[in-house]
Amino acid sequence: MELKYLLLSVEAKVATVTINRPDKGNALAPDVLEEVEKLFTELSVRDDVNVIVFTGGEKYFSAGFDLNEIRKLEKASNEAYTALFHRAYRAILFCEQPVICAVGGAAIAGGFDLTMMCDIRYASERAKFGQREIVLSLTPIMDPLWRIIGLGRAKEVALTGRIYDAHEAERMGYVSKVFPEGKLLEPVGEIAREMATYDRSCLKETKQLANKILNEDLDGAMRLQEWLFRSYIGSPDNHQRIDVLQAKLAAMKKK
User: Fold this and answer.
1) b vs e for 88-121, b when ≥16 Cβ sit within 10 Å of the residue's Cβ?
2) Co-location of 245 and 175 in the same domain
3) Among 2, 139, 189, 241, which is 20 to 30 Å from 196 by CA?
4) How many other CB atoms are found less than 10 A from the CB of residue 204?
């Protein structure tokens, strides 16, 4: 597909998707959201992509809604715009591959919501996070936020509209790790490339398992995990990876 507001590169089974509207702080105009939806839908079925990195570069992520576009809307005619946002959200959230979010700058309102749809979040010290919908008399996305940081924290984020720095986001469990400013994409790329060497179907099933178990009771979750584990243990790929690991361990012992 032809892209105007997103950049795409694919290397070593890692697709890197970069929002590229820096003159507007990567604000989410309708055309940007349409590209996000279509691109993630296409990437989801590509056999040459095992992991996706979603970023706005080292200086930005997304300042959120394009307020000029929202200002044009009337309540009676907002359905198409709202539906577009949620199609973009769902394309990321239910993408087949794990999606790693690399947040180099502000991720506010709709931009924050995009980070929420990803499976893993890393940030630079420059990053800021905020669910600012309440300030604009809008209701926020609470799910999957509460699943990530807990209901109490999610209520605080949504009801106060506060802006959190990267280290605060890390302490609340929203961000997995904070990297120095300007040095985010290289280590995140290394993590993604390592993940991309793993069994594709196992990555997919692990992501789906994580999404499913919150809707199960404890017994159901344990049974689901047992069934999935049984589906992979003893497989040819499992045997091959054990052989590789044992060879590495044997070589280390000889040193």
Assistant:
1) bbebbbebbbbbbbbbbbbbbbbbbbbbbbbbbb
2) no
3) 2
4) 16
What's the alpha-carbon Rg for the chain, to the nearest Å?
A: 20
CA-closest candidate to residue 184, choices 130, 122, 117: 122
The CATH number of residue 47's host domain is 3.90.226.10
Both 170 and 230 in one domain: the answer is: no
3-state class of 77 per DSSP? helix
| Contact of 125 with 164, CB cutoff 8 Å | no
pLDDT in tens, 49-99: 999 999 999 999 998 887 777 677 676 667 777 788 899 999 999 999 999
No. of helices (H) and no. of strands (E), the chain? 11, 9
Report the relative pairing of strands 51-55 and 14-19 from DSSP bridges.
parallel
| Count of domains observed in the chain | 2
Nearest Cα to Cα of residue 114 among 10, 196, 35, 14: 35
Tokens of 7: 């950049």
Q: What's the pTM?
A: 0.89
149 closest CA partner among 190, 116, 118, 109: 116
**Residues 192 and 247 reside in one and the same domain:** no
Residues 192 and 232 in one domain: no
Q: Which two tokens stand for residue 11?
A: 């290397």
